Amino acid sequence: MGQRRRRYSISVVAEMFDIHPQTLRVYEREGLLRPARTEGNTRVYSQEDVERVELILRLTKELGVNLAGVEVILNMRDRMERMQRQMNELLRAMSEQFDAEMKHWESREEEGLVPVKRRGLLRRSAP
């Protein structure tokens, strides 16, 4: 049975980071956060949202990046993560294809090249 993902209310997230809930609303309005909503339209933040808030605050408070800069950084980060996932999938597919081709060659009859004195290589024919 799968474990339920932890969800946080806006007040809990604001308290975690010692910020005003309005700050989180601004981040949402600016498109930096997309918290889920309950049927009653209450914001609920996932662990990923909480980590994103932490990154936004680090960029703005510690590095002095404005919200427009944060948006650019987050978009680039998201694109890089998507590209990394695509690259991992491509490498996995190539590895599977390589393994399949190796099995194919290993299963073929033993036919190949054999050394013949100084004259080089001679193709060995199957019996």
Automatic annotation (TrEMBL):
GO terms assigned for molecular function: DNA binding; DNA-binding transcription factor activity
Chain ranges of the HTH merR-type domain: 7-76
SMART domains referenced in this protein's UniProt entry, alphabetically: HTH_MERR
Superkingdom of origin: Bacteria
Coiled coil start-end: 73-100
Name the UniProt record assigns to this protein: MerR family transcriptional regulator
Pfam families linked to this entry: MerR_1
Alphabetical UniProt keywords: Coiled coil, DNA-binding
UniProt-listed InterPro entries: DNA-bd_dom_put_sf, MerR-type_HTH_dom, MerR_fam
PROSITE patterns: HTH_MERR_2 (PS50937)
Species this chain originates from: Candidatus Methylomirabilis limnetica
